[in-house]
Amino acid sequence: MAVVLATQGCRADPDLVAASYGDLDPGHPPQALDLTGSLRLSDPYAIRVGQRVWIFSTGPGIPTKSSADMRQWQDEGQVFAQNPSWIAPLLPAVTDLWSPALAYFGGKFHLYYAASTFSSIQSCIGHATADTIGQGSPFLDQGQVICSNVSGNVEDFNAIDPSVYVETDGSVWLAFGSWESGIKLIALGADGGPVASPLFPIAMRPPSNAAIQACHLMKWRDFYYLFASFDGCCSGVDSTHSIHVGRSSNLTGPYLDRDNLDMMDGGGTLVLESNADWKGPGSNMIFTDAGKQYNVYHAYDVSANGAATLRIAELAFDNDGWPVSGGP
User: 54's torsion region: left (phi>0), alpha (psi -120 to 50) or beta?
Assistant: First the structure.
């Protein structure tokens, strides 16, 4: 089975340090793909399995879609028929599961997802595994990885929007967070489960505007790149989400933007913002496939009364090593 991954709330990619592709061609700037079929979703995460690309997204049981060409998309059902049993005792109001992210390591597909309710910081990130995708092989839930503000505990972070990153040495990392004290990074075990690990803070916005979430980690050549969504989502055409990026020579940071402002101090170089047709682009991940990189995200369709909609755009890096997307 051929597997090409490029991940994901926070989202992440395998190491692309040896890649010879991805340079911006001024004669052929990145373009947005023309998409058809089933496109309504939030928080998309793309992964190739054999001849099809699959997308996992926020919703009841984690809805999925697939495509043979990345343009025509069809519904493929959901990961879970009902929420894993550990969620209700900790978070009884949870219905939908949010912001899935995936990686393939240790001979299995690993799925991370968030359980929470809107505007709450009582949250958990769960973990499930499967031998394959799309051939009747179910994901088996492995329980929670990290929680915030449940069972009487008090944390200054919000455990949603996971992003999994697998280093070249095989170590596994999880980035996550939304608003509050920003984006954190922790180490996971070799099996993808929780281990004792310090929390590394890698991005935060000032208290006057703490809106940062939906991060994604990737590596391209000499740098790790941290993408994050700034400002507000989930309000249709009134959404103000935009996608920003910083980079670092170390996985744990500091992540600096083009102007050398630390993302812990509110820095972040703009990658995508609204236009007349698409509002609030956000929840970005970078998908690498067949020698090309794609910006996968959702935006709110002005022509459809602000419906959250799948968007995929080509992505390349300019001469200074900063990403340029063909969106919105």
Answer: beta
Q: Does 323 sit behind a cis peptide bond, omega within 30 degrees of 0 on the bond before it?
A: no
Residues 161 and 158: their CA atoms lie apart, in Å, by 9
pLDDT of residue 6: 38
Element (H, E) at 87: helix 87-90
> Which pLDDT tens digit goes with each residue over 250-264?
999 999 999 999 999
Using the predicted structure, report yes or no on whether residue 28 has a pLDDT greater than 90: no
Q: Which long-range contacts (CB under 8 A, 24 or more apart) does 34-37 make?
A: 34/71, 35/71, 35/72, 35/73, 35/310, 35/311, 35/312, 36/71, 36/72, 36/73, 37/65, 37/67, 37/72, 37/73, 37/74
In this structure, are residues 229 and 162 in contact, taking their beta carbons and an 8 Å threshold? no
Q: How far apart are CA 22 and CA 43, in angstroms?
A: 24
Query: In the block, which residue shows the tokens 């956000």?
Result: 282
- The reported pTM is 0.92
**What are 269's two structure tokens?**
């170089």
Q: What is the pLDDT of residues 175-229, one digit of tens each?
A: 999 999 999 999 999 999 999 999 999 999 998 899 999 999 999 999 999 999 9
| Domains of the chain in sequence order | 3-325 (2.115.10.20)
What are 99-155's pLDDT values in tens digits?
A: 999 999 999 999 999 999 999 999 999 999 999 998 777 999 999 999 999 999 999
6 phi and psi angles, rounded to 5 deg: -155, 105
**Pairing assessment for the beta strands 292-301 and 307-317 based on DSSP bridges:** antiparallel
Query: Hey, what long-range contacts does 130-138 have (CB within 8 A, 24 or more apart)?
Result: 131/107, 132/1, 132/49, 133/47, 133/49, 133/54, 133/109, 134/49, 134/50, 134/52, 134/54, 134/66, 134/76
